Amino acid sequence: MTPRFGVNYTPSQGWFHHWLDFDIDAVRADLDSVARLGLDHIRVFPLWPLFQPNRTLIRPRAVEQLVALVDAAAEHGLDVNVDGLQGHLSSFDFLPSWTATWHRRNIFTDPDVVAAEAEYLRTLAAALADRPNFLGMTVGNEINQFSGPPHPDPDPIGPAEADAWLRLMLDACERGAPGKLHLHAEYDAAWYQDDHAFTPAQAARLGFATAVHSWVFNGTAQRHGHAGVATEHHAAYMIELSKAWATDPHRPVWLQEVGAPAPVVPPEHAAAFATATIEGALDCADVWGVTWWCSHDVARSLADFPELEYTLGLLTNDREIKPAGTAVARAVAELRDRGYAPRPRTTALVVDVGDSLTAPRRAGCAPGGEVFEAWAALTAQGVRPALVLADRAADAEHLAARGITEVVTPAQAR
Questions:
Q1: Are residues 311 and 409 in the same domain?
Q2: Cα–Cα distance, 79 to 365 (Å, whole number)
Q3: Measured distance CA(395)–CA(386) in Å, rounded
Q4: Do 81 and 143 share a domain, yes or no?
Q5: Which of 338, 363, 394 is the last residue of a domain?
Q6: What percentage of the chain has pLDDT greater than the value 70?
Q7: Where are the alpha helices (DSSP H) in 76-211?
Q8: Contact 227, 233 (CB under 8 A)
Q9: What Å distances lie between residue 211 and 117, 380, 405, CA to CA?
Q10: CB 127 within 8 A of CB 180
Q11: Which residues pair with 208 in a beta bridge?
C-alpha cells in the first residue's frame, strides 16, 4: 500500500463561507493549484447549518453544489473525502439553530437531533455514492470537542454514549454509500485527556481507518521547541499510539490533519517541519495517507481567526506555492520514486492507562506525560519505538503480529 497524499481544502476566496456564494470556476482554479503540487486527494467541509438549516430540511441546492465540487475535483485527478457535521472549524462553531438557544438539545443523545444528523450524513453519502472519486465520509471534524471541557457550552456525554453515537453515524454513512471508506475523526483529547468521552479504543476500532490529527501547539512545541525530536515526530508518535489500541495489527492509519502552526513553528521553519513530519510519518507502517492542513491561506480580510490560522496554507490566497507547499510536493515525488517499506519497529514501549476501553489514565500519553516523554527519548536515541497496551505486553501472538521483539516500560526507557 502506497500512502496517499492530499490536502484539506480551504477555498482561497471566502474560506468555508464560499458555500454562501458558491463559484465553481473559483473552485476549479483552487483545485488546479492543488493538483500542481502532485497531490491525489482533498478533504472538503460542507457547513452543516447551511446544508441542513432546519431539522427536516436538507437543501437540495447545497447538495448539488457539493456534488459539483466533487466532479470538479475529478477533472483535476483528485479524490474526495467529505466531512459531514461541521461542526467546528478553525476555532469557530457551526451548529444549526435547531440545536441551540431556545431549541437547545444535546447533539449526541437527543433522539430527534441524532435522527436528523444520521439522515444528513446518509443524504450526502448517497448523493456521491456513484462518483468514482468519492472516497467516503468523515462523520465530522473534531466534533468530540462538543462533548465536554474545555468547550464553553458542551453537550456532556460519557464513553458509552459516544460509542453509540459514532456507530449510528457510521452506519448512516454506510447506508448512503455502501462500501466506501467511512470513518470518524477526533482532536487529540481522545488520546490525551483522562475523562474525555471519546476514547482511543473508539478511534482505533470503529470505521475503516484510524484518523490522527497532529497539532504541536498542544504543548509539544512549547516544551520541546520547534525543531525538537518530539515536535518533528509528533505525528509519528500519534500514529504509533493509535496502533496500541487497534485490534487489527495492520489497521490503516490516516494522518488526516497536520500543519505547521505559527508561532510555535516559525514561518521560516515551516518547510523543514513539513519535511521532518512527513519523513517521520512514513517511517510508520500501515499509513493510509497524509493530508496536510491546509490548501490555501485564510485571507487577512476575514476577522477574528486565531493568528496561526491565517498562514497554514501550502498556497497563498493568490494560489502561489509557499515553501511548505514545495516541501510537501517534494516529499510526494520522493515517495513515488523510492516506494514505501518502513522497517518493523521491534521495540515497544508499554502504555498503561488502566482499562483499555475507557483509558482513565491516558494523560500519561500527552506531552509531559511519562509515555510521551519516554517515547521521545527513545526516538532521540534512534530506537524507533512502537507502543503496546499494558494488557497486551505479554501477548506473544499480538507482539509477533506487529514484529515486536522487545518490550520496555517508561521507567526502563528513562
A1: no
A2: 34
A3: 15
A4: yes
A5: 338
A6: 100
A7: 111-128, 159-176, 189-192, 200-205
A8: no
A9: 21, 25, 27
A10: no
A11: none
Please identify which residue in the block is written with the cell numbers 517541519.
273
Q: How far apart are CA 45 and CA 61, in angstroms?
A: 16
Q: How many Cβ atoms sit within 10 Å of the Cβ of residue 44? A: 19
Work out whether strand 134-141 and strand 92-93 pair parallel, antiparallel, or are unpaired.
unpaired
The answer to whether the CB of 128 falls within 8 A of the CB of 32 is no
Check pLDDT > 90 for residue 255: yes
Q: What is the DSSP letter of 182?
A: -
β-strand partners of 169: none
What tens digit of pLDDT does each residue of 257-294 get? 999 999 999 999 999 999 999 999 999 999 999 999 99
Model confidence at 1: pLDDT above 80: no
Considering the domain architecture, whether residues 201 and 289 belong to the same structural domain is answered as: yes
Amino acid at 120: Y
* 274 burial level (CB within 10 Å; 0-12, 13-18, 19+): buried
d(CA 355, CA 336): 41
Q: Is the dihedral of CA 117, 120, 122, 125 positive or negative?
A: negative
CATH code for the domain in which residue 256 is found: 3.20.20.80
Same domain, 235 and 352: no
Tell me: do 164 and 215 sit in the same domain: yes
Residues 158 and 262 in one domain: yes
Q: Of all helices (H) and strands (E), which one includes residue 214?
A: strand 210-214
Looking at 305, 338, 371, which one is the last position of a domain?
338
Query: 387 is in which domain, residue-wise?
Result: 347-413
How many domains are there within the chain? 2
